[in-house]
Design brief:
Blueprint (H helix, E strand, L loop, with lengths): L2 H19 L14 H6 L17 H8 L1 H9 L17 E5 L5 E4 L3 E2 L7 E2 L8 E6 L6 E6 L5 E6 L9 E4 L4 E5 L8
Helix pairs in contact: 3-4
Length: about 190
């Protein structure tokens, strides 16, 4: 590969990664209901285990289950392009699950508009459902977010989020599945 092409590829990778690092502070408005536990209570069909049992599969099994792009993001720590994945602009109420193992990870009540092009949340649905790991790839110092059950790469967490935590979990939409919660009628 010639030097100019390598330079442009490096520049493109740097720009894509830095986009996830740049939240638009003015648009960081969480939804009105800020209790992830309430979303968990409203989704009784989902399993919210007290103990996380690891899910282990071969890379071939993950590849067959996930498909090429989801495999690249979840199992090879890739990043989808901003504004292209599912859920970055989803406003429905519900619970976001790990696409690989279906562990509930985030509630819509903690999702906010970060302006980055990826779904952003200010906290996981339950403590211990996501793991954080130091990530020094691409010459940057970040905190990677992983599913606690299957170890899949979800995205990164930054300290530029809204109250009450000040955190922004910047998650690849392709790493998630979404389960809407039932809308309650008056009198229910």
């Amino acid at each position: 590969m010639d030097k100019p092409l390598r330079f442009y590829l490096f520049l493109l990778a740097t720009l894509l990664i830095s986009a996830c690092n740049q939240a638009q502070q003015l648009s960081q408005q969480p939804t009105e209901n800020t209790q992830p536990a309430q979303a968990a209570a409203e989704a009784p069909d989902l399993l919210f285990p007290d103990t996380i049992e690891p899910v282990s599969k071969s890379e071939e099994e993950w590849k067959a289950q996930l498909g090429p792009e989801a495999f690249r993001v979840l199992r090879q720590a890739g990043t989808e392009r901003a504004f292209t994945g599912p859920y970055w602009d989803n406003k429905a109420e519900g619970v976001y699950l790990c696409r690989a193992c279906k562990l509930p990870l985030f509630a819509s009540t903690t999702k906010f508009k970060s302006g980055t092009g990826w779904p952003s949340f200010y906290e996981p649905i339950r403590e211990g459902y996501v793991l954080e790991k130091v990530d020094r790839s691409y010459g940057m110092f970040r905190t990677e977010v992983l599913c606690a059950r299957c170890g899949s790469h979800l995205g990164h967490v930054f300290d530029d989020g809204p109250p009450p935590t000040g955190l922004r979990y910047c998650i690849n939409g392709i790493a998630l599945d979404f389960v809407p919660t039932a809308v309650k009628e008056e009198g229910d």
